[in-house]
Amino acid sequence: MAEYKRPSSLMPMATGYCPGCMHALATRLVADAIDELQQADNAINVVSVGCSALNLYSWKGDVIGSAHGRAPAVATGIKRCLPDRLVFTYQGDGDLAAIGLAEIMSAANRGENFTVIFANNQTYGMTGGQMAPTTLIGQKTTTTRFGRDALTTGYPLKMCELISVLEAPVFVARYALNSVKGVQDAKKGIKKAFEMQLAGKGFTFIELLTNCPTNWGMNPLDTLDYMNTNTIPYFKPGIYKDKEAEA
């Protein structure tokens, strides 16, 4: 029987995330991939403003905090200066797809050789549950009390679809963390993205569909069903680009 062990890349402490939040699971999957690749001492985690900033406390290795939405710009500078390091950003949807939209699209379009881990829970988790660029149509938030309306606020941004049409990115994939298979697939995808980066192949992007029990106003179990019924039909999991497989 397999024994649960904390990844050596993580500090021996609680994550700080709300009970039932999949940010903790996402962090664990990233750490597992780093440990399996024996990159704990070589990895640099770039975080931005939002719940992702809690990684500043949980990672044993090098962690750099950036301004809101600017993690891809910071990661670009780090990777160009230290090309042998495993560099990745860990960002939420309010950060990456709103104030950081120009940053992520520009880095992807340039084909910068680092990895982006994008946690999409369709809300601004840390700042009070406001509508995010990925908030679903009809989803209630503190700034869309009657549900998001496409006529006034547009449609949820599909980041994998946007990035995959660019020429430079080499691996773009989306995984849902509300099932065992989804978690297993996500771990494989994260590891593959890191391996491609270490091989110098270019920009890799992993989107993880997560939850937010606190701001969704649900218990954690109910969020799993909500994701199946609402999140996954709109943000369809899958591999959107894999230049390695196409070669």
Which regions have little confidence, pLDDT < 50, spanning 5+ residues? none
Domain module count:
1
CATH class: Alpha Beta
What percentage of the residues does DSSP assign to strands (E)? 15-25%
Helices and strands, in N-to-C order? HEHEHEHHEHHEHEHHEH
- Count of alpha and pi helical runs: 11
Instruction: Identify the CATH architecture.
Output: 3-Layer(aba) Sandwich
Task: Sketch the major β-sheet.
Answer: 7 strands, mixed
**What class would the helix/strand composition place it in?**
alpha/beta
- Helix residue percentage: 25-40%
CATH topology: Rossmann fold
Radius of gyration over alpha carbons? 17 Å
Question: CATH homologous superfamily, by name?
Answer: Thiamin diphosphate (ThDP)-binding fold, Pyr/PP domains
Give the termini distance in whole angstroms: 39 Å
Order of strands across the biggest sheet? 2-1-3-4-6-5-7
Number of strands: 7
Mean pLDDT: 94
Task: Describe the fold and architecture.
The mean pLDDT is 94. The chain has one domain (23-131, 159-246): Thiamin diphosphate (ThDP)-binding fold, Pyr/PP domains (Rossmann fold), CATH 3.40.50. The protein is α/β, with parallel strands linked by helices. It contains 11 helices and 7 strands. Helix 1 (23-36) packs across helix 8 and helix 4 (93-99) packs across helix 5 (101-110). Helices cover 40% and strands 16% of the residues. Strands 2-1-3-4-6-5-7 form a 7-stranded mixed β-sheet, with helices on both faces. Strand 1, helix 2 and strand 2 form a beta-alpha-beta unit.
